[in-house]
Amino acid sequence: MRFLNGLQPGYDLTYDDVFMVPSRSGVTSRMDVDLACDDGTGNTIPIVVANMTAIAGRRMAETVARRGGLVVIPQDIPTDVVHDVVADVKSKHLLHDTPITLSPTETVGAAISLLPKRSHGAAVVVGEDGRPVGVVTLADLQGVDRFTQVREVMSRDVVTVAEDVTPEAAFATLGAARHRLAPAVDSEGRLVGLLTRTGALRATLYRPNVDAAGRLRVAAAVGINGDVAGRAKDLVAAGVDVVVVDTAHGHQEKMLEALATVRALDLGVPLCAGNVVSAAGVRDLLAAGADIVKVGVGPGAMCTTRMMTGVGRPQLSAVLECSRAAAELGRHVWADGGVKHPRDVALALAAGASNVMVGSWFAGTHESPGDLVLGPDGRAYKESFGMASSRAVRNRTAAESSYDRARKALFEEGISSARMYVDPQRPGVEDLLDSIIAGVRSAFTYAGAATIAQFHERAVVGLQSTAGFAEGAPRHTSW
Question: Is residue 476 part of a domain?
Fold first, then answer.
């Protein structure tokens, strides 16, 4: 990335401070752009979901990996639970979504509590033999007594597809039947998955992020306290594909010691560490054994670090400096935090990031772990919280004495409860991925870049005023 007219900014920059200038391009279609990463993660889109308890769970991990990204399971999740999550994610089909299932005698109330868990918004009603006998959606449940059995309200007009169906054939079948979704069944007619028309389309636009055995990839985090080596070994034994050694202040001696300890285990998976915001921090983490460095202090939506401590750095400048330091040593950085629009993801890649970490942006989706809540105004939301907040610290220190936990709870840094509203137009993480990837692909065509490496080399950016940023924002009502 270079600055327009050779400008050298005299101050650090956020994503909002810059714009990208179009260049002569031979890349005429978004479909000609390859967003695969070369940092060892296997990502086919440059998106990593942050290791936040309110965001990164098994549903998120399965869905994002199926579209080519990666989810990092948080460090405060017990190891036995991580084993279950990883095994579950790696058992998932690369094309079919995981269905919500109900028996015919279950109640409408049970259905209502389960349907928001998946963005397809449907449950397959299966008989005792495992074969689909009906489909129920939220529309079928409106105004129905909650104790009514689902067999009384389900649609019995079920179209199924074979488990080995191609996306094109599935789309054609659903279109001909005028159905939005279809259960996928095996040769005996038993339910094995669910496929929507949109899902069939996405399967032709994205490539799953898979390991050497063709299973979906997943990452997990470990902190710098306690039995770091034991936790890291357990994670890899569980099947984790990337280990993230994570702490808010990554440029500290304890991090370097923990990182060196994990590197000495020779686990055979990429090792990411952070967070830092300087070239010196990058060099020290790489010297201690990291393959990837996580960049960002303070830009996250749930983070109060800058307001509490004055510590941090505007994210674009941090990514630019850190990526250059990593590139000199043949390594990579992830841009962690501060993205609110697809343009921000594109600018992070232009600044040299191999992947962009997304957290709160994905909190208000069906795939995040929290329960869907309806506010007084009828808007649906999920609760989110920062990983340095008192709520997260309380979860992370559950095994400690009540005295030690109470002492640590006095020093809160981060938001403990925030409402992340579900966008009715983009209620699922795949809907957001569509928006992000469309914007990023288009940005690549403006720069004349077909790959991430070319984009970083060819992107030209200029500085803009607050009014310049506002000028580029769309207006949904007249002025």
Answer: no
The CATH number of whichever domain residue 154 belongs to comes to: 3.10.580.10
Same domain for 109 and 245, yes or no, is no
pLDDT tens string 269-326: 999 999 999 999 999 999 999 999 999 999 988 888 888 899 999 999 999 999 999 9
Q: Looking at the structure, do residues 253 and 359 belong to the same domain, yes or no?
A: yes
Tell me the Ramachandran region of residue 152: left when phi exceeds 0, alpha when psi lies from -120 to 50, beta otherwise.
Answer: alpha
pTM: 0.91
Structural domain for 132, as ranges = 100-204
Contact 373, 476 (CB under 8 A): no
- d(CA 433, CA 428) in angstroms, rounded, equals 9
* Terminal Cα-to-Cα distance of the chain (whole angstroms): 36
Q: How many CA atoms lie within 13 A of 431 on its CB side?
A: 16
Cβ atoms within 10 Å, residue 39 = 22
Could you report the per-residue pLDDT of 352-365, keeping only the tens digit for each? Answer: 999 999 999 999 99
- Which residues are known catalytic residues? 303
The whole-number pLDDT of residue 74 equals 96
Other beta carbons within 10 Å of 313: 22
Q: Do residues 383 and 246 share a domain?
A: yes
What are the Cα distances from residue 329, in Å, to 36, 286, 291, 479?
A: 21, 8, 10, 51
